[in-house]
UniProtKB/TrEMBL annotation:
Keywords noted in UniProt: Repeat
Source species of the chain: Selaginella moellendorffii
Record lineage: Eukaryota, Viridiplantae, Streptophyta, Embryophyta, Tracheophyta
Superkingdom classification of source: Eukaryota
Transmembrane segments: none
Ranges of residues in domain PROP1-like PPR: 141-301
Protein name: PROP1-like PPR domain-containing protein
Leader sequence residues: none
């Protein structure tokens, strides 16, 4: 949360500016920018810069540093970069490097390389004759490491070597990190060997952490432990990070004995454990299924006079979720409330998962409201967990309410949320009138459930279609199962209830013409199928040749059904009569 004093001081300066009494030469610029950087106050940094009558290149570099720390690219870093140019300055290597570092930290390395305005940083740098230095290449390689772009990282490394720039330890650490994120463990050890061959460079704790993480991500806990052992023999350490990485490597196998032996080593080496280390230890206990052991770690935390915070509580709640112990989750939640700590959103999500898995859906909804009142903002995963529970409990009304709140909170729906909503609609549609055989095979209903009214399906159908569109607008790629379930919802009911209620799905003609899928599907099904075909979700086909062959083998039943209607409609529109179509199911 932004400290109000920084805004108050800025308002004082702005008021003095209005009165004509402000002399910015008497204000220590670096100190203000440092405070903005610490508090991620990008907007305030821009307002402050606007008060400076004659900003220098150093001023803009400090402004860029604030944006870099806040990982603000578009309005922040590139806005500062544009302002710098408008002021008549020519960016130097430091400016370009800071801008590249901002892109890297924001996981937007594409902006570093794209030759389009305004994101042409690296190429523009080359085109204007500004020579990149070691820090510049380090920033680019670091960005590639963060996004797992291994080939690009080594490509930049080779360019750097071709310019006779010798790598330092930071470069090697970033390359090892890039290898680890890409699962290239062998390549990571090759880089480590190259580092050791440099006489003036020695590996540090960051090097060892990166190497341990590389082994851990590849699921090779034994190799990770060997690196950890080598680290201790070399006397590298003095901080908890490498020990934490070694404990993390024990999680996948749930090797609790090894994790506690690392803890013993840590105490022997005189290194004080921190909250992150204990969180990792709790995580291993959870993977080992030892929930009581996980809670016992809290006693170890107290020995170090540490106060358990959101990180430790989040890990403990995660253990409760993984072992499906909702009673312990409630107990922990009550303890968190008692000590007055505001839980993190990850703690909230773990609590929701534990309660939903334990069939405590109403408790989950109640806890959500309590936590929102306490200032905890649910994220996309929170709503995904609850919508999945809504589908299992067949609570479409609650699901609609949750989805509405999610959109109001600025949450972009993901494919899982969309699938849950479509699933609830499809379950009702199947039960009412579409395919009784499929209904009995796929869905089992409670005998006490009230009969469904077909009138309720159409608003839900509009909701499902809107959700599908919003999900795609957010950048998600639809999958074949999700598409097929949505197409099933667009299958026009065949029951007599449809005639009794007067409900009409979208049709442009009263006749069951093949253009409308023989009256079997709403025309929107064909539009969805055509869109899915254009992006490769469903197989495409060609109209040239005889016969026209379409491989529908493996397609879900509703997708296959719509595909046949779609092909016939295309042939009719193209006036390709008397053609032989071979559908292979």
């Amino acid at each position: 949360v932004l400290n109000p004093r920084i805004r108050e001081s800025l308002e004082v300066l702005e008021e003095m500016e209005k009165k004509g009494t402000l002399d910015m030469n008497k204000v220590y610029h670096a100190r203000f920018y440092q405070e903005c950087k610490r508090q991620l106050a990008v907007e305030e940094a821009f307002r402050y810069t606007g008060l400076i009558k004659s900003p220098t290149l150093s001023t803009y570099n400090m402004l860029l540093s604030v944006c870099c720390n806040a990982r603000d690219t578009n309005a922040g870093a590139f806005g500062a970069f544009a302002a710098l140019k408008r002021a008549g300055f020519k960016p130097d290597c430091m400016i370009y490097t800071t801008l590249i570092s901002t892109c890297s930290k924001a996981l937007k390395t594409d902006l570093v390389f794209q030759a389009r305005n305004p994101a042409q940083v690296y190429r523009e740098m080359e085109s204007v004759g500004v020579e990149a230095n070691l820090l510049t290449y380090g920033a680019i390689i670091d960005g590639c490491a963060r996004t797992g772009e291994l080939a690009k990282a080594f490509g930049i490394y080779r360019i750097m070597l071709s310019k006779k720039i010798k790598p330092d330890r930071v470069i090697f650490n970033s390359l090892i990190n890039a290898c680890g994120r890409s699962g290239a463990v062998k390549r990571a050890f090759e880089v480590f060997t190259e580092l050791k061959s440099e006489s003036l460079i020695n590996p540090n704790h960051v090097t060892m952490c990166s190497l341990i993480d590389a082994c851990s991500k590849a699921g090779d806990g034994d190799s990770a432990y060997e690196v950890y052992t080598m680290m201790r023999k070399r006397g590298i350490g003095g901080c908890p990070e490498p020990y934490t990485a070694a404990v993390h490597a024990c999680s996948s196998s749930g090797n609790l004995e090894r994790a506690f032996s690392i803890y013993d080593d840590m105490k022997k080496d005189g290194v004080k454990a921190d909250e992150i280390f204990f969180s990792a230890l709790i995580d291993v206990a959870g993977h080992a299924g030892k929930i009581n052991c996980a809670f016992d770690v809290l006693q170890e935390v107290e020995k170090y006079s540490l106060v358990p915070g959101p990180v430790i509580f989040s890990s403990l709640m995660g253990v409760c979720s993984n072992v499906r112990n909702w009673e312990k989750a409630i107990f922990l939640y009550e303890n968190i409330q008692a000590v007055g700590i505001r839980p993190s959103v990850s703690t909230l999500n773990a609590l929701m998962t534990a309660l939903c898995r334990g069939k405590q859906f109403q408790n989950a909804l109640q806890s959500l409201e309590e936590l929102k009142e306490a200032g905890v903002s649910p994220n996309q995963l929170t709503y995904s967990i609850l919508l999945e529970a809504c589908e299992k409990e067949n609570e479409a009304g609650i699901a609609l309410n949750l989805y509405t709140h999610a959109i109001a909170d600025g949450i972009v729906p993901n494919l899982a949320m969309c699938d849950n909503i479509i699933g609830m609609l499809l379950a009702d549609a199947l039960e009412i009138c579409i395919e009784p055989m499929l209904c009995t095979k796929v869905f089992v209903w409670k005998a006490s459930r009230a009969p469904l009214d077909l009138r309720s399906l159409l608003p839900r159908l509009s909701w499902a279609l809107a959700c599908f569109r919003q999900t795609l607008s957010g950048g998600a790629q639809p999958t074949l199962p999700v598409l097929s379930r949505l197409l099933a919802c667009l299958r026009i009911p065949e029951s007599s209830e449809r005639a009794d209620t007067g409900l009409v799905f979208q049709t442009s003609s009263p006749n069951k013409h093949l253009v409308e899928g023989f009256g079997v599907y709403d025309p929107r099904a064909s539009a969805l199928y055509e869109e899915a075909s254009s992006i490769g979700v469903v197989p495409a086909f060609k109209c040239d040749g005889e016969p026209i062959v379409f491989e529908a083998d493996g397609l879900p039943i509703y997708t296959a059904e719509v595909s046949s209607h779609f092909i016939l409609r295309l042939l009719l529109n193209a006036r390709l009569h008397n053609r032989c179509v071979c559908l292979r199911y």
